[in-house]
Design goal:
36% helix, 1 helix, two-stranded antiparallel sheet, alpha+beta, 2 strands
Length: 55
Amino acid sequence: MRIRTLLAGLVLIATPGLAIAECNWGAGMNEASISCAQGTTWDDTTQRCVTSVSS
């Protein structure tokens, strides 16, 4: 019975650590940022910089 109690305690202690390991805290670090030249903007449809149309 002591072994079962010890194992149950170890599982309860390890659970928060496993939950933290599943988080994607650094996911934003892998994303590239796009910067277009002056007078152009990023077009998501064509995936390229296009000339801005001013109204």
